[in-house]
Amino acid sequence: MDLDSRTYFKLNHVSYGDENFEKYGRIVDAIWPLTKRRDHETPEMWCSRIRDPFRKILEENPRILSKNGYIIMYGKLYENDKVHNGYPTDYIYCSVCDSLVFIPGTGYNPRIYHDSHLKRCISGNTISNDHARRKEILQSIDRREFQIWQYKQYILKEEVKINRLRLELFSQSTSHSEKDKLASVSYDHDANFIASYENYAQSKATVAKNTMPSAPNFEPACISPTRQRSASAPEIRNLWNDRSNMPNISSRTTLGDLAEAYFDSVRTNAGRK
Ligand SMILES: [Zn+2]
Questions:
Q1: Torsion of CA 242, 243, 246, 249, to 10 degrees
Q2: What's the pLDDT at 238?
Q3: All residues with CB under 5 Å from ion ligand 1
Q4: What pTM value is reported for the model?
């Protein structure tokens, strides 16, 4: 068997009483410690330390394993004063191409990407390996941009609420409806609007369209959820752009900083086009 995710599963979940129970157990016990990155070890250092013992395990069990396989580098996860050892990183060592390979996790099932890397190495297709590598990295970037976009949708909602609260605090003389208008508060909500990937993709396409011609006055149109008609896009944009001019409105939360950083990068990218 090639040592891919299916084989790992088989080795780890062999039932007591199976004729291979002990053999599988020994293999797992030998591989597991190798997965752990030691403190202060770089991925390259981890790779050169585990390379030989890992290959040895593959070679010493010819009845069970072929010489083709990969091993994932695991890091530590600190949580509530506890250290968990099993936190998979973006690195694997592949015995076929005999190298440390960077495979970005996409949040779903990174093992699919590990397996397809191994498969391509076994078939000797380095060109498709290169192609797939680019595609996986772009997918991973897209996935993260989607997450940032989702955060922004929530930030915008909270900013509208904060603006309304500030107005309530500082301008007693203004009428309620006037304050609602100033803060872009709406009472018509689109229940269908969810910060879904589909909506993200649509707004991304809108940004691309808007920034195609050289746009010195680039506006981050991406922050307007395309299907959220309750507050119009320009209103949201102005709210976002003017938030630093508003009295006491500088909700520089961590997420706010994140979004800011994202806008800067979008602006930089737009400037480059
Ligand atoms: Zn490989």
A1: 180
A2: 45
A3: 94, 96-97, 121
A4: 0.64
